[in-house]
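Entry type: protein chain
Record version: 2
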Amino acid sequence: MDAHNRGRAEEIDPADQWVLNPQTGDYELRLDHSAAESPGPYRGEDHFPGDGSESDGSPGRVPAQRSRTRGPGTEPAAGRRGRKQPRSRRRKILLWTGGVMAFVTLAGSAGAYALYQKFNGNLATVDVGSAGSKTVAHADSPLNILIIGTDKRTGKGNEGYGDKGSTGHADTNILFHVSADRTNATALSIPRDLITDVPDCTTKQPDGSEKVIPGTDGIRFNVSLGQEGRDPGCTMRTVEKITGLPVDHFMMVDFNAVKTLSTAVGGVEVCLAKPVDDADSHLRLPAGRSTVEGEQALAFVRTRHSFGNESDLDRIKIQQQFIGSMIRRMKSDDTLTDPRKLFKLADAATKALTVDSGIGSIKKLTSLARELGKIDTKNITFVTLPVVDNPAEPTPVTVVVDQQKAPQLFGLMRSDTSLTEVKAQERAARTKRDAALTGTRSKPADIEVTVQNGGDRTGAAGTTVSWLQDQQGVTGASNGSNAPAKAEKTTLAYVPAQADQARALADIMGLPATALKEGKPAAGGARAMVLTLGADYEGAGVPLTGPRKAPEDIQKASADKAVCAK
């Protein structure tokens, strides 16, 4: 409830509506009660019923409702017993905006965030230094939150899943990128079996000292956490090295989260294209739609051998389906209008959650939830990092980053392009470019261009030539190797007779009008255009003028649509 509404005689503070029922042990919402029968559950952010902060110091008693100053002619509390307050729309809005902000994301083993002002003491935090220092409420800058689901076998009932003594790995990982204007989000799944370089990282030790964990090249992504003493900050830095995107915060959970959260919301609906009876995960479900919770929900997100080609990439699809369904469940009226369900959900989520110290309080998480709550589910896109089989393995069981498709996707995320609205944004960018690059365009097959590398990306010229030839039809592209000198900006040099080709290549490459440099013909007539890739060049297919299009054939799904697992 807003602060300026506190203390008004005609309105009861929603914070005082939650009352402990001694028969059930749960807190329940009461909207029509007197002061005598409705003790207020808490006073302020960090004082709650049953946490030892009661007025008489007794841990077993809930304190009386906070007193309010009464003006002349105001009825005493007892006189209001028979006067029921209407459950108006305004009252409901005040209740939910004042008492509850929740957004849940589960990943792999699980990943989640759900918010409620009672649960500050539930949160576990890790100090990851400057990586977790960003303020979340800046609506003029993007947010990147890494959600980590570990495979650590802690908690009741999890001992039987194998690898009992493990310190836990980064088993399932989602980089949740929120646009600066909060209109869209991209949830990028990073495969645990990705071979990558884990950089050096500084970790905080129990005694407060710092220790640098040396980096390791060419290892699986999942060992960026837990192994060699690495903490979630090491995983954050590994993601930054892969994507080029700064990671602002992390949220981490283990197996218990998917069980407790799916139960708290009353189950999560999933869909199967065929019946499943998996001997490894013990998942048994019929074809069609089912609602899963608890152990069955965990079995669903852990199942790999019953879907697709039984790879971890197919398991990621299953997890994304589960996450999307959970988000829809969280935002449904069935959840938002059920105070008891919200209470249990927030309790389960905060107990399951470990976060960086930058968001390690309910106040900060509530601020984050407000930002995330602005995003329509139709504009939340789940996508998997583009990868290819590891060429270093005769029979590949691991993967490496697809160096053509991945940079395009990273570029779209950096430009805050919604993957659900790429075509509209592509048209807008093209219209702006067309205004500057007036004139006709040549066909791709008629373009002749020499590509030189003046930037810092090794092999950029060769990669770009391959992309132009194989994917764009520019068969006249050739590799000019390194440029004579380093270049800050990408440029395209051409002569007047090549203006049509230059405009066409600018469209293909996503070059701004300022990148085109018209010159005089060399002796002997026209020569091939020269495209010099500068330090601003981020990869083949990554435009310099804003969004163009998403890479083709990437694995993606929208949070607002249910998809049946195959």
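Comment: The radius of gyration is 28 Å.
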